[in-house]
Design goal:
By secondary structure, the protein is of the alpha/beta class. Helices cover 22% and strands 30% of the residues. The protein has 2 domains: 151 residues, no CATH class; 210 residues, no CATH class. Strands 5, 7, 8, 10, 11, 13, 14, 16, 18 and 20 form a 10-stranded parallel sheet that branches. Strands 1, 2, 3, 4, 21 and 22 form a 6-stranded antiparallel sheet that branches. The two termini are 61 Å apart.
Length: 409
């Protein structure tokens, strides 16, 4: 009898121990599955940031087909806007993710946050995320602050984890020669006023011309004639027109912006909705205003009254081909850059007339020229123009904005 009782007691203790082990194993399995879901969600969030680094969806993303309005899932067709399903599969090889697994990523604007100039790398006080509020926001950077929310959610064997982070695009500034004017050659109306080109305003910059040493019958640096004679003490007119800055002729450095830089800037203009196949009409001159504006082909004279950009917020206007003229009372603030792309031209590609002018800098690549025609036309250097051409760079998570959130549907 005693032996039977001892056997029953041992069986009871053993069964209780087995039950405890089974519970612990089940809990361990649930924790493992939950951790796998977390890792999968974090991985897909990082993978969703990669397409944003490739092509940032700026304010003009919808028109260019660059917006991220549709969510990405494991069932989505292959797309440059979504995480690579093959890459996700390679990264997560656990048996837990072989079946009963799903994931979803979304990109939404932080609309409602204060508009800024894309320069801050810290989260602002308004960087608050809510599924209820953010779900209805656009899938692109509609407020032009270089910030977007990226949300990821993953489910593994019934366990769901969700997380979100505020992502910011880096802005890339392209280095430029410090010159008020860079061109193949320069022509100035002989009766033009003194100080028509001021390369010394605020900063002491230069006038760079690619043309070779001029002869008495050739035009290179302002008027026909040899530069030494035009710059002689007995002939001060050109010196007065150029405010004492003697042009550097025979400039033979490469183009101020490389092909790669131009490509990046063109993509930025497309993302911002400021890319045009041709110059806007005279009546639509305000379309030339913006941080980065790209025109494929131009052949337009602007003769009205307008201020394009401001001295406090200059822009960059890039023209691939064709002449442009600012006349009337057109004041442009920023960098006016003519790429003079193939087939390049030696014609006067930028013309300033009337009371029109540029506060910033004017660059014409190759042998293309600049013609300043009337007495009131001008170029006045402003060093802020050299930082105006900025493209989008890589995207990354802003510190302290990553967080795990309750899963959604």
């Amino acid at each position: 009898m005693t032996a039977l009782l001892l056997t029953m007691i041992m069986l009871t203790v053993g069964l209780a121990g087995l039950a405890q082990v089974d519970v612990q194993q089940e809990q361990s399995g649930l924790e493992r599955v939950g951790e796998t879901a977390f890792n999968l969600g974090e991985g897909t969030l990082g993978a969703q940031i990669f397409p944003l680094s490739q092509r940032w969806p700026g304010p003009g993303a919808v028109g260019a087909g660059l917006d991220f309005s549709s969510p990405c899932t494991e069932a989505s067709p292959s797309s440059s806007k979504c995480p690579s399903k093959a890459t996700i599969a390679e990264l997560f090889t656990s048996p837990d993710v072989e079946s009963l697994t799903s994931w979803r990523t979304e990109v939404r604007d932080n609309k409602g946050a204060e508009l800024n100039t894309c320069t801050s790398t810290e989260a602002s006080p308004t960087s608050f995320y809510s599924d209820e509020f953010t779900a209805g926001q656009p899938g692109y950077d509609s407020n032009a602050d270089c910030r977007l929310w990226v949300r990821a959610q993953a489910t593994v064997r019934g366990r769901t984890r969700a997380m979100v982070a505020l992502v910011q695009a880096e802005r890339v500034t392209h280095q430029l020669p410090r010159a008020a004017l860079l061109a193949g050659r320069l022509e100035i109306e002989p009766k033009g006023k003194d100080g028509i080109i001021d390369a010394r305003a605020a900063v002491n910059t230069g006038i760079l011309l690619r043309c070779a040493t001029p002869t008495s019958d050739s035009l290179c640096a302002g008027h026909k004639g040899k530069l030494a004679e035009l710059w002689s003490p007995g002939n001060p007119h050109l010196q007065d027109q150029l405010n004492g800055t003697k042009p550097q002729i025979g400039y033979d450095e490469p183009a101020a912006l490389t092909e790669e830089a131009l490509s990046d800037l063109e993509q930025a203009a497309i993302a911002n909705g400021t890319w045009y196949p041709s110059c806007p009409a005279d009546a639509d001159v305000e379309k030339l205003a913006g941080e980065i504006v790209w025109v494929e082909t131009c052949n337009t004279v602007y003769s009205g009254r307008a201020s394009i950009n401001t001295s406090a917020k200059p822009g960059a206007l890039i023209i691939e081909n064709g002449p442009i003229e600012f006349g009337g009372n057109i004041d442009f603030y920023g960098l006016l850059y003519h790429a003079n792309a193939e087939p390049s031209s030696s014609a006067m590609l930028v013309k300033l007339a009337g009371n029109g002018g540029v506060t910033g800098a004017v660059f014409v690549e190759g042998q293309g020229g600049v013609f300043i025609q009337d007495q009131a036309a001008y170029i006045t250097v402003d060093s802020r123009a050299f930082d105006a051409p900025r493209s989008y760079g890589s995207a990354g998570i802003i510190q302290n904005t990553w967080r795990e959130i309750p899963p959604g549907p």
